[in-house]
UniProtKB/TrEMBL annotation:
Residues 25-165 form the Thioredoxin domain. This is Redoxin. The chain crosses the membrane at residues 6-24. Signal peptide: none annotated. Keywords: Membrane, Transmembrane, Transmembrane helix. InterPro entries: Redoxin (IPR013740), Thioredoxin-like_sf (IPR036249), Thioredoxin_domain (IPR013766), Thioredoxin_ResA/DsbE_sf (IPR050553). GO terms for molecular function: oxidoreductase activity. PANTHER family: CHROMOSOME UNDETERMINED SCAFFOLD_47, WHOLE GENOME SHOTGUN SEQUENCE, THIOL:DISULFIDE INTERCHANGE PROTEIN DSBE.
Length: 167
């Protein structure tokens, strides 16, 4: 009986330790090396994100949650852009490029929009399949938070302000 209790206790301590590590680390890992092909044909790499706090949003024109959250993403971009914040919307590979271009133009998206025609960018960023999937990247190029589904924008703004204040 004593060994059984010890084993259960050790398992709980190990589980708590892993949980604390994940919680305290906050998932900070380097953003994957990627090349984003923007609607104008230009290219941007993950290295280009360094020095700014960046929201990277994987979305699709056929995703109702993506379309619904876009005004909030626009407002967030407009609120923080002058302070060193950037936004990059990455359209999923199955989204017809003409739909993406039409959406970006008709909604007057004020930030960069990339086409992921091959799916390589989504794969590099953790094999993204669900939209919207959003990543917050700090000035050092580390992913500090990710969301599947629409984020709580009040909490997101608090995080952005904290990250912008970091040196």
């Amino acid at each position: 009986m004593g060994i059984k209790h010890w084993a259960v206790g050790a398992a709980l301590v190990a589980f708590a330790g892993v949980g604390a590590f994940v919680y305290l680390d906050a998932g900070r890992s380097a953003a994957p090396e990627s090349t984003f092909v923007l609607l104008d044909g230009s290219r941007q790499t993950t290295a280009d994100l360094r020095g700014k706090v960046t929201l990277v949003n994987f979305w699709a024109t056929s995703c109702t949650t993506c379309v619904a959250e876009m005004p909030e993403i626009i407002a967030t971009h407009n609120k923080y852009h002058a302070k060193g914040f950037d936004t990059l919307a990455v359209a999923m590979s199955y989204d017809p490029p003409s739909y993406v271009v039409n959406f970006a133009e008709s909604r007057k998206l004020p930030f960069k929009v990339a086409l992921d025609n091959t799916g390589a960018v989504a794969k590099a960023w953790g094999d993204v399949r669900l939209t919207p999937s959003t990543f917050i990247v700090n000035k050092r190029g580390e992913i500090v938070k990710s969301y599947v589904g629409a984020p709580d924008f009040t909490q997101l703004h608090q995080l952005i302000e904290k990250l912008l204040a970091e040196t």
